[in-house]
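Slack export, channel: ligand-projects

TW: morning all. Re-posting the request from yesterday since it got buried. We need the structure predicted with the small molecule present, not the apo form. The ligand is zinc ion; the SMILES is in the block with the sequence. No rush, but it would help planning for next week.
GE: picking it up
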Amino acid sequence: MSNCTIATCGRPLRPDEAHRVTCGRCEHRIRAWLRELTYQLPLLEASLQHDRTPTQGSVHGGRAHSPLPVRLDVLNLLGPAAPGTVRDHPSDQTGPTPVPAVLHSWAQLLADDLGKPLPRLHPVRGYTGYLAAHLPYALTRDWVGDFHQELAELIGRVRAITRTEPQRHRQDAPCPSCQGFGLVEEDWQPYIECTLCGLLLTPAEYTDHAKRVMPRLYRTALLIATHERMTHMSTERVTVRVLLLFGDQAEIVADVPPEERAEPQRYPAAEIAAAVGVPVDQLAGKRLTAAVGDDDRLSGWQLA
Ligand SMILES: [Zn+2]
Ligand SMILES: [Zn+2]
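GE: finished. pasting the full token output, ligand included:
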């Protein structure tokens, strides 16, 4: 069995992945970065303008030239695609390679390997789409590890400027594969990923799965809650004594020595008699247990 060639991964390839050099999880990551680049582009363009706060020179005007109206680091990243391919990196390149140049180079390399001319496309949206569309083929090429690494670095630089990173949202349902609570949805990503076992689910697959398992989980939670309440209730039972009958009322006192007793409380004698299965005229003097309600009234009569 061969392993994923992405340096930071190395997980074993499944039989259905054996024809290529990267695993499904790394493919998912590459797709997510390509998507993210298109979402980051407007944010990057918006970062082009300098903040209005003066960061250079002095307030007292010791500057020979007016400052550049735009940020050079952002301009470098947005810059036009430089000529050349990945295999033929221009050695005089200074600073990081601009986003369009990175995308164009890899798209060109892919087109060369496919033996097809590279179409002219939008420098970012067009070539991220082209790379994503041909990714299944790219994943069989030995250069995909370098592609993965260069995209990772590019995303890192872009995020550092836009100060925007996709947020991760933990999902309620456990993973259908490893049963752990590791499912995470990340902004802009097409899959929900298990951080424990690497399983990928589409949002529709997750919704189906959650619908199936969540009612069972909720039922279990409800049973636990009910059980706890019942346990709690049973600890709130008190022992009492029927002092005497007063008309159709039974006078109930706590089963404690007479000097500790509070005022007797009256309850319908017939109700108690029915509950404990003793004729009304034999209730007087009986020891009973009862549950204490929230209003301190007793119910759930049983013979002690
Ligand atoms: Zn991998
Ligand atoms: Zn899992």
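GE: first-pass observations. The chain has three domains: 1-50+68-165, 167-235, 236-303. Strands lie at 168-170, 183-186, 192-194, 200-201, 237-246, 249-254, 265-268, 287-292, 298-303.
TW: perfect, thank you
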